[in-house]
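User: Quick sanity check before I run a bigger batch. Here is a single chain. Can you write out its predicted 3D structure?
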Amino acid sequence: MATGLPREQAMEEASGEFAFIDWLRRNTPPHPSVSLGPGDDAAALRLSAHSECLVTTDMLLDGVCFRLEEVGPRQVGRKAMAVNMSDIAAMAGRPVAAFVSVALPRSGGKALAPELYLGFRDVTDDFGTAIAGGDTNSWDGPLAISVTLLGEATGNGPVHRSGAKPGDWILVTGELGGSIAGKHLTFTPRVREALHLHSVADLHAMIDVSDGLSADLNHICVESGCGAVLHSESIPISKAANGMNDQKSPLEHALTDGEDFELVFASPPDHARALIEKQPIPGITLVHRGEFVDRGLWLATAGRRVPLLPRGYTHELC
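Assistant: Done. Predicted structure follows.
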């Protein structure tokens, strides 16, 4: 990407993953076909006057996002596809076509490829999504996978991170925390749930929990120019988080663990109350988890608010 800025200035301005994303956003020029660029769960392309294409991409690396020797190539392929599906779900879109590029290790790579493909298909077949192309290469390093997924916005349009308003209620599609115990590999992207919610309620903003609830909720706040209060007693804590044997409490795990891939969304109170009353999605119990406010990120316990740090997973850049 040509930005016109010297390399030294670029590196000074971007000292971490999110700082680098901010730098990209500041230095990426607008384009008439791009209605929503970097910074949300997926980009939105205006391919015609009446259609938007959602585009998302994720790269997964052995030793960072998974350990191949522990989980095997089929589980790795499944996860690589599912994390991209989750981004399309966060926009309340329909996944249409995937393009997959893999860098296979020279040693043993030939045996990995078919199992990776079966893992991709475990997800794409479930959602009627095509694997439309990609690229395969080999090198002396570990396995690397890059998936680019194209999705289609519904008639209600994509749900952005930037639409939350003070007074909106916070709802979550499932339990949080402890995903390292297995959920990060086996989760089912909330595509169907997002589409159904979008059809029956007004969704002002939404995001998938990939970095951690507090961190991802803060992304909505930053993009929407508001704050949020979470009610500690209503945070949906998973059995896995309750069973973690470390120095963090179950609540801390629910607030800061990444890769739950549940959806957190903002809905106006009347629509949120109707969702909670009707519970329209089998297997999911929607509960009022908090609300958006003018500013700040807070955790409320027994009516007392304390500041909540937006902690979660981040890729550090050196």
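Residues 1-30 form one domain.

User: Great, the batch can go ahead then.
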